């Protein structure tokens, strides 16, 4: 029996347009919100074409006073660079050691006490929300000036990212080995060390290398608040109006960051999961997993070994413990990394007398944090940081899209132009945001305009890189088909490329906004508006209740923006 189609009443109008999907509604809402926030940020800062041209003119005069750069001596450069690298290595190493147990406890697959997981997740969120420079201000107050405060700031902030990403890797790992170990009577610590950690070790290596790259950039400017590194020399040069020396130090920072970025990319390629597993060991692991499932929990390990041995070539032991070239290189690399980490710890001068002298400062700080003192000025400063970040991210996304179209392989009008723009973007990304803020403050004076321009530049460079990579990853077949059918390039892009690029554009734009918000918090330390100046002032005047309110406000705002971005990505991607 065939049911009849529903009959539409005669009075009901027939619509030829399909209903809007949830994805289209979310994308339209984000677009309207971006335009509104950008306009509000321009109004709040007082940015207009006339003021922008005047600011650019002042900045050009400052750059003229900085030329030619006065490079420090080779010995001074080597000392400052070494101290910066040691801060980053020590902080990253301490964070990695603390993140491994924290990640296992925070993972949903952890079967230990239930109250540990929410506590671990709270630590991960709070350490990730507060920027490195904010932690540096606190640790300088506790431990005094020097690289020890910088390394601890890097370590505490890095724990949030490393632990979060490692927890995700632990949750995605194959649960069969862990279940077999538990069935044999192993405890949770034994399961984590013997069954799970070896499988997530390649992911942990990649995460730590990526975080080290970020921490080197952060360590280059920690000296602005007295936390050691090359930033001390930069702050001294700018404070004494020695712009030629400041330009030379900025050149050193840019070269250092670019060289280390190239080294980081090379290391990540050599430590990828494909190389980490190898050929035969990977087959043995897969076969052991299959045999473990076939033999059940109790006999999984024995069945896994038997099945693994069956697929090996004749004459090769199932578990070869010999030292081949790859194992020797890995062992040598592990020993080298451990030695460098220990040297970096010793270079921080963590003598017992200094650590004991920090206890009274820590006690006073903790005693003065409660109750937090929320004021109207604090909330207005937080709002200023929020407007600066979101407005600069929206403007940077628009400018970054234009640059991405010039650099992406499928959209660039001229290949040499694409190469030139890519090199310029790499150089611009190599300069930390705080350095841009210091330059704009020196050129334009104190205020949010300097912070907005600094974030605009960095957001544009980052967005252009992300958008260009996304465009090049799209399948060119629809675009080529439309151009072959007679469509013009802009028509083929609008109909064949843009609809598939919108999800990536939105997701990467939200990521840029997230990073801009974190950076806007600390730009006020250089006098570039926002809540950073209030934090530095509250610590200098021992008003720790205001410091606590600022940290809470920063964590809440950053976490709220991160949550909104995650919800938007879920509906769009």
Q: Describe the sheet with the most strands.
A: none
Number of helices: 23
> What is the C-alpha radius of gyration, as a whole number of Å?
27 Å
**Strand percentage, roughly?**
under 5%
Q: Give a count of the beta strands, DSSP E runs of length 2 or more.
A: 0
Helix content: over 70%
Order of helices and strands: HHHHHHHHHHHHHHHHHHHHHHH
Mean pLDDT, to the nearest integer, reads 77
- SS content category: mainly alpha
Characterize the overall form: globular
Termini, distance in Å? Answer: 41 Å
Contiguous runs where pLDDT drops below 50 for at least 5 residues: 1-20, 273-319
Layout of SSEs?
Elements: H1 22-45, H2 49-66, H3 74-106, H4 116-129, H5 132-143, H6 147-172, H7 176-183, H8 188-219, H9 231-239, H10 243-270, H11 273-277, H12 280-295, H13 300-310, H14 325-347, H15 352-368, H16 376-407, H17 415-430, H18 433-444, H19 448-473, H20 477-484, H21 489-523, H22 532-540, H23 544-572
Q: How would you portray this structure in words?
A:
By secondary structure, the chain is mainly alpha-helical. Helix content is 77%, strand content 0%. It has 23 helices and no strands. The chain has helices at residues 22-45, 49-66, 74-106, 116-129, 132-143, 147-172, 176-183, 188-219, 231-239, 243-270, 273-277, 280-295, 300-310, 325-347, 352-368, 376-407, 415-430, 433-444, 448-473, 477-484, 489-523, 532-540, 544-572. The radius of gyration is 27 Å and the shape is globular. The two termini are 41 Å apart.
């Amino acid at each position: 029996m065939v049911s009849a189609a529903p009959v539409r009443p005669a009075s009901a109008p027939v619509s030829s347009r399909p209903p809007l999907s949830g994805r289209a509604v979310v994308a339209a809402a984000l677009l309207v919100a971006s335009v509104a926030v950008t306009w509000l940020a321009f109004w709040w800062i007082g940015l207009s074409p006339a003021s922008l041209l005047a600011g650019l003119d002042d900045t050009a005069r400052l750059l003229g006073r900085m030329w030619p750069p006065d490079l420090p001596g080779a010995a001074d450069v080597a000392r400052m660079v070494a101290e910066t690298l040691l801060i980053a290595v020590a902080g990253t190493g301490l964070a990695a050691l603390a993140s491994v147990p924290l990640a296992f406890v925070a993972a949903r697959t952890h079967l230990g006490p239930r109250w540990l997981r929410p506590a671990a997740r709270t630590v991960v969120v709070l350490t990730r929300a507060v920027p490195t420079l904010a932690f540096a201000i606190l640790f300088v107050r506790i431990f005094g000036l020097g690289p020890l405060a910088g390394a601890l700031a890097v370590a505490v902030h890095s724990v949030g990212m490393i632990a979060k990403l490692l927890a995700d890797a632990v949750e995605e790992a194959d649960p069969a080995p862990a279940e077999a170990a538990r069935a044999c009577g192993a405890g949770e610590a034994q399961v984590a060390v013997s069954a799970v950690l070896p499988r997530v070790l390649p992911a942990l290596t990649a995460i730590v290398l990526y975080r080290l790259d970020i921490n080197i950039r952060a360590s280059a400017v920690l000296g602005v608040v007295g936390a050691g590194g090359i930033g001390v020399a930069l702050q001294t040069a700018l404070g004494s109006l020695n712009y030629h020396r400041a330009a030379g130090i900025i050149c050193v920072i840019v070269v250092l960051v670019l060289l280390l970025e190239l080294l980081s990319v090379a290391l990540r390629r050599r430590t990828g999961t494909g190389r980490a597993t190898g050929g035969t060991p990977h087959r043995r692991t897969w076969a052991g997993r299959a045999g473990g499932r076939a033999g059940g929990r109790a006999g999984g390990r024995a069945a896994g070994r038997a099945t693994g041995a069956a697929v090996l070539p004749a004459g090769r032991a199932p578990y070869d413990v010999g030292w081949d070239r790859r194992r020797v290189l890995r062992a040598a690399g592990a020993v080298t990394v451990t030695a460098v980490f220990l040297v970096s710890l010793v270079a921080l001068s963590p003598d017992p007398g200094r650590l004991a002298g920090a206890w009274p400062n820590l006690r006073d700080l903790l005693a003065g944090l409660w109750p937090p003192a929320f004021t109207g000025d604090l909330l207005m400063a937080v709002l200023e940081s929020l407007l600066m970040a979101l407005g600069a991210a929206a403007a940077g996304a628009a400018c970054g899209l234009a640059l991405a179209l010039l650099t992406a392989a499928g959209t660039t009008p001229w290949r040499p132009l694409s190469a030139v723009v890519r090199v310029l973007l790499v150089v611009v990304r190599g300069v930390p945001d705080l350095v841009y803020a210091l330059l704009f403050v020196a050129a334009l004076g104190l205020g949010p305009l300097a912070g907005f321009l600094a974030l605009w530049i960095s957001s544009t460079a980052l967005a252009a890189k992300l958008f260009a990579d996304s465009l090049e990853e799209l399948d060119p077949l629809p675009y080529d088909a439309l151009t072959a059918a007679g469509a013009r390039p802009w028509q083929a892009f609008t109909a064949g490329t843009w609809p598939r690029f919108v999800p990536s554009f939105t997701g990467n734009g939200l990521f840029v906004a997230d990073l801009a918000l974190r950076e806007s918090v600390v730009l006020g330390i250089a006098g570039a508006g926002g809540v950073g100046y209030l934090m530095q002032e509250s610590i200098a005047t021992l008003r720790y209740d205001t410091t606590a309110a600022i940290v809470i406000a920063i964590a809440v705002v950053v976490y709220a923006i991160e949550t909104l971005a995650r919800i938007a990505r879920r509906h769009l991607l």
